[in-house]
Structure to design on (254 residues):
Protein backbone atom coordinates (compact mmCIF):
# COMPACT_ATOMS: atom_id res chain seq x y z
CA UNK A 1 0.00 0.00 0.00
CA UNK A 2 1.40 3.46 -0.87
CA UNK A 3 2.32 5.77 1.98
CA UNK A 4 -0.37 8.17 3.12
CA UNK A 5 0.20 11.90 2.64
CA UNK A 6 -0.41 14.54 5.30
CA UNK A 7 -0.23 18.33 5.08
CA UNK A 8 0.23 20.52 8.17
CA UNK A 9 0.02 24.31 8.00
CA UNK A 10 2.36 26.16 10.34
CA UNK A 11 4.62 23.18 10.96
CA UNK A 12 7.80 25.02 11.89
CA UNK A 13 7.26 25.51 15.63
CA UNK A 14 5.13 24.51 18.61
CA UNK A 15 2.17 22.18 18.15
CA UNK A 16 2.58 22.09 14.36
CA UNK A 17 6.20 20.98 14.56
CA UNK A 18 5.25 18.15 16.91
CA UNK A 19 2.39 17.12 14.61
CA UNK A 20 4.75 16.89 11.64
CA UNK A 21 6.99 14.50 13.61
CA UNK A 22 4.10 12.47 15.03
CA UNK A 23 2.50 12.03 11.60
CA UNK A 24 5.84 10.99 10.10
CA UNK A 25 6.24 8.46 12.94
CA UNK A 26 2.73 7.22 12.18
CA UNK A 27 3.78 6.42 8.61
CA UNK A 28 2.76 9.53 6.67
CA UNK A 29 4.86 11.44 4.19
CA UNK A 30 4.36 14.96 5.55
CA UNK A 31 4.42 18.35 3.84
CA UNK A 32 4.19 21.47 5.96
CA UNK A 33 4.10 25.22 5.47
CA UNK A 34 5.75 27.91 7.52
CA UNK A 35 5.83 31.68 7.31
CA UNK A 36 8.78 33.33 9.08
CA UNK A 37 10.68 30.47 10.74
CA UNK A 38 12.82 29.24 7.84
CA UNK A 39 15.66 27.95 10.04
CA UNK A 40 13.50 25.86 12.42
CA UNK A 41 11.62 24.54 9.38
CA UNK A 42 14.80 23.43 7.66
CA UNK A 43 16.13 21.95 10.93
CA UNK A 44 12.92 19.91 11.28
CA UNK A 45 13.18 18.57 7.73
CA UNK A 46 16.84 17.63 8.28
CA UNK A 47 16.09 16.01 11.65
CA UNK A 48 13.24 13.87 10.31
CA UNK A 49 15.07 12.99 7.09
CA UNK A 50 17.94 11.67 9.23
CA UNK A 51 15.42 9.29 10.80
CA UNK A 52 14.33 8.06 7.37
CA UNK A 53 11.17 10.15 7.05
CA UNK A 54 10.08 11.89 3.85
CA UNK A 55 9.17 15.45 4.84
CA UNK A 56 8.76 18.63 2.80
CA UNK A 57 8.79 22.13 4.35
CA UNK A 58 7.82 25.13 2.21
CA UNK A 59 7.35 28.84 2.90
CA UNK A 60 3.73 29.85 2.37
CA UNK A 61 1.59 32.55 3.93
CA UNK A 62 -1.63 30.66 4.63
CA UNK A 63 -3.66 33.84 4.25
CA UNK A 64 -2.59 34.64 0.68
CA UNK A 65 -4.47 32.74 -2.01
CA UNK A 66 -1.68 32.75 -4.63
CA UNK A 67 0.81 31.38 -2.07
CA UNK A 68 -1.57 28.66 -0.93
CA UNK A 69 -2.20 27.64 -4.54
CA UNK A 70 1.55 27.49 -5.23
CA UNK A 71 2.08 25.51 -2.00
CA UNK A 72 -0.64 23.02 -2.91
CA UNK A 73 0.71 22.58 -6.44
CA UNK A 74 4.22 21.91 -5.07
CA UNK A 75 2.90 19.47 -2.44
CA UNK A 76 0.77 17.51 -4.93
CA UNK A 77 3.70 17.40 -7.35
CA UNK A 78 5.98 16.10 -4.55
CA UNK A 79 3.40 13.59 -3.33
CA UNK A 80 2.17 12.53 -6.75
CA UNK A 81 -1.38 12.64 -5.41
CA UNK A 82 -3.82 14.62 -3.29
CA UNK A 83 -3.20 14.38 0.47
CA UNK A 84 -5.13 12.01 2.70
CA UNK A 85 -5.00 14.45 5.61
CA UNK A 86 -4.87 18.23 6.01
CA UNK A 87 -4.26 19.80 9.42
CA UNK A 88 -5.05 23.52 9.53
CA UNK A 89 -2.80 24.48 12.43
CA UNK A 90 -1.24 27.85 11.54
CA UNK A 91 -2.36 30.57 13.92
CA UNK A 92 -1.32 33.84 15.50
CA UNK A 93 -2.54 35.85 18.50
CA UNK A 94 -2.69 39.51 19.38
CA UNK A 95 -3.20 40.63 22.95
CA UNK A 96 -5.02 43.98 22.93
CA UNK A 97 -8.18 45.45 24.44
CA UNK A 98 -11.03 45.66 21.95
CA UNK A 99 -11.12 49.44 22.19
CA UNK A 100 -7.44 49.66 21.22
CA UNK A 101 -7.01 46.81 18.75
CA UNK A 102 -5.72 48.09 15.41
CA UNK A 103 -7.43 47.28 12.13
CA UNK A 104 -4.11 45.86 10.86
CA UNK A 105 -3.85 43.32 13.70
CA UNK A 106 -7.52 42.35 13.35
CA UNK A 107 -6.96 41.74 9.63
CA UNK A 108 -3.73 39.78 10.19
CA UNK A 109 -5.28 37.46 12.80
CA UNK A 110 -8.47 36.82 10.82
CA UNK A 111 -6.48 36.36 7.60
CA UNK A 112 -4.07 33.86 9.13
CA UNK A 113 -6.36 31.89 11.42
CA UNK A 114 -9.67 31.83 9.56
CA UNK A 115 -9.00 32.74 5.93
CA UNK A 116 -5.91 30.51 6.02
CA UNK A 117 -8.09 27.61 7.14
CA UNK A 118 -10.57 28.36 4.33
CA UNK A 119 -7.94 28.71 1.58
CA UNK A 120 -6.10 25.50 2.49
CA UNK A 121 -9.33 23.57 2.93
CA UNK A 122 -10.58 24.77 -0.45
CA UNK A 123 -7.47 23.94 -2.45
CA UNK A 124 -6.67 20.61 -0.76
CA UNK A 125 -10.36 19.73 -0.43
CA UNK A 126 -10.72 20.16 -4.20
CA UNK A 127 -7.74 17.90 -4.79
CA UNK A 128 -9.19 15.27 -2.42
CA UNK A 129 -12.58 15.50 -4.13
CA UNK A 130 -11.03 15.22 -7.61
CA UNK A 131 -9.06 12.15 -6.53
CA UNK A 132 -12.32 10.58 -5.33
CA UNK A 133 -10.89 8.62 -2.40
CA UNK A 134 -12.11 10.82 0.45
CA UNK A 135 -9.87 12.37 3.06
CA UNK A 136 -9.71 13.96 6.49
CA UNK A 137 -9.31 17.58 7.50
CA UNK A 138 -8.56 18.58 11.08
CA UNK A 139 -8.75 22.22 12.10
CA UNK A 140 -6.92 23.35 15.21
CA UNK A 141 -9.28 25.48 17.25
CA UNK A 142 -8.99 26.73 20.83
CA UNK A 143 -10.99 27.32 23.98
CA UNK A 144 -11.96 30.49 22.08
CA UNK A 145 -14.17 28.34 19.84
CA UNK A 146 -16.78 28.75 22.55
CA UNK A 147 -15.41 30.91 25.37
CA UNK A 148 -14.93 34.67 25.48
CA UNK A 149 -11.35 35.61 26.37
CA UNK A 150 -10.64 39.24 27.29
CA UNK A 151 -8.08 41.09 25.17
CA UNK A 152 -8.25 38.44 22.45
CA UNK A 153 -11.28 39.60 20.49
CA UNK A 154 -9.68 39.04 17.08
CA UNK A 155 -8.39 35.60 18.02
CA UNK A 156 -11.70 34.68 19.64
CA UNK A 157 -13.62 35.75 16.53
CA UNK A 158 -11.27 33.70 14.33
CA UNK A 159 -11.60 30.53 16.43
CA UNK A 160 -15.36 30.96 16.78
CA UNK A 161 -15.32 31.12 12.99
CA UNK A 162 -13.31 27.89 12.85
CA UNK A 163 -15.98 26.18 14.96
CA UNK A 164 -18.68 27.03 12.42
CA UNK A 165 -16.40 26.63 9.39
CA UNK A 166 -15.68 23.07 10.54
CA UNK A 167 -19.38 22.24 10.65
CA UNK A 168 -20.25 23.83 7.30
CA UNK A 169 -17.25 22.22 5.59
CA UNK A 170 -18.16 18.83 7.07
CA UNK A 171 -21.70 19.10 5.70
CA UNK A 172 -20.57 20.26 2.25
CA UNK A 173 -17.66 17.85 1.82
CA UNK A 174 -19.30 14.77 3.31
CA UNK A 175 -20.58 13.76 -0.13
CA UNK A 176 -16.97 13.48 -1.26
CA UNK A 177 -16.10 11.23 1.68
CA UNK A 178 -14.09 14.05 3.23
CA UNK A 179 -14.48 14.32 7.00
CA UNK A 180 -13.83 17.67 8.69
CA UNK A 181 -13.30 17.91 12.45
CA UNK A 182 -11.69 20.24 14.95
CA UNK A 183 -9.24 19.67 17.79
CA UNK A 184 -9.54 22.49 20.32
CA UNK A 185 -6.51 22.58 22.63
CA UNK A 186 -6.50 23.95 26.16
CA UNK A 187 -3.35 25.42 27.67
CA UNK A 188 -0.49 23.80 25.79
CA UNK A 189 3.11 24.63 26.74
CA UNK A 190 4.98 25.81 23.63
CA UNK A 191 7.75 28.36 23.02
CA UNK A 192 5.00 30.87 22.27
CA UNK A 193 3.12 30.33 25.54
CA UNK A 194 6.42 30.53 27.46
CA UNK A 195 6.85 34.01 25.99
CA UNK A 196 3.22 34.82 26.79
CA UNK A 197 3.66 34.25 30.52
CA UNK A 198 6.69 33.67 32.76
CA UNK A 199 4.65 31.16 34.80
CA UNK A 200 2.29 29.64 32.22
CA UNK A 201 2.19 26.26 33.98
CA UNK A 202 1.65 27.83 37.41
CA UNK A 203 -1.25 29.87 36.11
CA UNK A 204 -3.07 27.13 34.19
CA UNK A 205 -2.38 23.91 36.13
CA UNK A 206 -4.41 24.81 39.25
CA UNK A 207 -7.53 25.59 37.20
CA UNK A 208 -7.20 22.53 34.94
CA UNK A 209 -9.05 19.45 36.28
CA UNK A 210 -6.25 17.10 35.16
CA UNK A 211 -3.83 19.28 37.13
CA UNK A 212 -1.29 20.13 34.46
CA UNK A 213 -0.83 22.06 31.27
CA UNK A 214 -0.82 20.10 28.03
CA UNK A 215 2.07 19.39 25.70
CA UNK A 216 2.09 19.31 21.88
CA UNK A 217 2.20 15.51 22.23
CA UNK A 218 -1.25 15.65 23.86
CA UNK A 219 -2.63 17.12 20.63
CA UNK A 220 -1.13 14.52 18.30
CA UNK A 221 -3.25 11.55 19.47
CA UNK A 222 -6.60 13.25 18.88
CA UNK A 223 -5.44 14.49 15.44
CA UNK A 224 -4.37 10.93 14.55
CA UNK A 225 -7.74 9.65 15.78
CA UNK A 226 -9.69 12.02 13.53
CA UNK A 227 -7.43 11.03 10.62
CA UNK A 228 -7.90 7.32 11.22
CA UNK A 229 -10.44 4.69 10.22
CA UNK A 230 -11.49 4.64 13.88
CA UNK A 231 -13.17 7.99 13.12
CA UNK A 232 -14.63 6.87 9.77
CA UNK A 233 -18.16 7.95 10.80
CA UNK A 234 -17.17 11.12 12.69
CA UNK A 235 -17.43 14.52 11.04
CA UNK A 236 -18.29 18.09 12.00
CA UNK A 237 -17.12 17.57 15.59
CA UNK A 238 -14.94 19.56 17.95
CA UNK A 239 -12.92 17.60 20.49
CA UNK A 240 -11.69 19.51 23.55
CA UNK A 241 -8.14 18.47 24.33
CA UNK A 242 -7.77 20.61 27.38
CA UNK A 243 -7.48 18.54 30.56
CA UNK A 244 -11.06 19.59 31.28
CA UNK A 245 -10.31 23.28 31.73
CA UNK A 246 -13.00 24.54 29.36
CA UNK A 247 -15.62 22.17 30.74
CA UNK A 248 -15.05 23.34 34.30
CA UNK A 249 -17.65 25.94 35.29
CA UNK A 250 -16.33 28.82 37.43
CA UNK A 251 -18.34 27.82 40.51
CA UNK A 252 -17.83 30.10 43.52
CA UNK A 253 -16.86 27.12 45.74
CA UNK A 254 -14.28 24.34 45.74
P1 LIG B 1 3.28 28.74 17.42
O1 LIG B 1 3.39 30.23 17.35
O2 LIG B 1 4.41 27.98 18.02
O3 LIG B 1 3.03 28.13 15.97
C1 LIG B 1 2.30 28.81 15.02
C2 LIG B 1 2.68 28.24 13.67
O4 LIG B 1 1.89 28.92 12.68
C3 LIG B 1 4.14 28.48 13.30
O5 LIG B 1 4.63 27.36 12.63
C4 LIG B 1 4.07 29.66 12.36
O6 LIG B 1 5.10 29.66 11.39
C5 LIG B 1 2.76 29.40 11.67
N1 LIG B 1 2.23 30.59 11.04
C6 LIG B 1 1.91 31.78 11.62
N2 LIG B 1 1.47 32.63 10.69
C7 LIG B 1 1.51 31.97 9.50
C8 LIG B 1 1.18 32.30 8.17
N3 LIG B 1 0.69 33.52 7.86
N4 LIG B 1 1.36 31.38 7.20
C9 LIG B 1 1.85 30.14 7.50
N5 LIG B 1 2.18 29.76 8.74
C10 LIG B 1 2.01 30.67 9.73
O7 LIG B 1 1.91 28.48 18.18
P2 LIG B 1 1.26 27.16 18.81
O8 LIG B 1 1.99 25.95 18.41
O9 LIG B 1 1.04 27.44 20.24
O10 LIG B 1 -0.17 27.20 18.11
C11 LIG B 1 -0.51 26.35 17.01
C12 LIG B 1 -2.02 26.36 16.85
O11 LIG B 1 -2.62 25.88 18.05
C13 LIG B 1 -2.62 27.73 16.58
O12 LIG B 1 -3.70 27.62 15.67
C14 LIG B 1 -3.13 28.15 17.94
O13 LIG B 1 -4.19 29.07 17.86
C15 LIG B 1 -3.59 26.81 18.49
N6 LIG B 1 -3.71 26.76 19.93
C16 LIG B 1 -2.59 26.76 20.73
C17 LIG B 1 -2.74 26.72 22.10
C18 LIG B 1 -1.57 26.72 23.04
O14 LIG B 1 -1.80 26.76 24.25
N7 LIG B 1 -0.33 26.64 22.56
C19 LIG B 1 -4.06 26.71 22.74
C20 LIG B 1 -5.15 26.70 21.81
C21 LIG B 1 -4.96 26.74 20.46
P3 LIG B 1 6.29 30.76 11.42
O15 LIG B 1 6.90 30.69 12.79
O16 LIG B 1 7.18 30.30 10.34
O17 LIG B 1 5.64 32.10 11.18
Amino acid sequence: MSQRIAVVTGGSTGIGRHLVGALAEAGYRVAFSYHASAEPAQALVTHLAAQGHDVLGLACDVGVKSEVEAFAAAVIDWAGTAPDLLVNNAGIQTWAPLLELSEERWDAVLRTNLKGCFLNTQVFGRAMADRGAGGAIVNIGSGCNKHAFPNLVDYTASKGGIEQFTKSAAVELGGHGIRVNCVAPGAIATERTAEESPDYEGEWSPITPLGRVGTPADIAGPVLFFASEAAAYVTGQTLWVDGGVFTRAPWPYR
